[in-house]
Amino acid sequence: MTDTTNISEAAKAVIRRNTAEVQGGGNWALFDELFSDDFLDHTPQPNCTPDKAGALGLYKKLREAFPDFHAVIHWQRSDGDVVTTYKTYHGTHKGDFLGLPASGKPIHFETVDAMRVQGGKITEHWGVANLYSVLKQLNALPQ
């Protein structure tokens, strides 16, 4: 394997651990290990700061709203230290989400994101999440 292949495979493994163990398992100690202290989110969600604390806050909010929150990774591609992942998140709405009280409904939404991994840590994020579909599933859109 070339050095670039090794870097790409190692970066993919970090992103898979974040998706499964942090987002899907609520392992906040691992979050601290996987995210660089100078992490920058280029596409932060509303009311979230674009730093490490903002990402952790978002992850915690999602797990509070959807305690069984988890993702299915459909594919990953890497270009050196940047990994692009297409995945579908799943969960059951058991807590406040975007001002909507718990409904008990199952939801799912697609996300495409790119994360840079340097020295085994996630340093940057760019992403698009289909939160419109969640609002539709929760009957939160005007008819």
TrEMBL record:
It comes from the Bacteria. InterPro entries: Cyclase_SnoaL-like, NTF2-like_dom_sf. Pfam families: SnoaL. This is Ester cyclase.
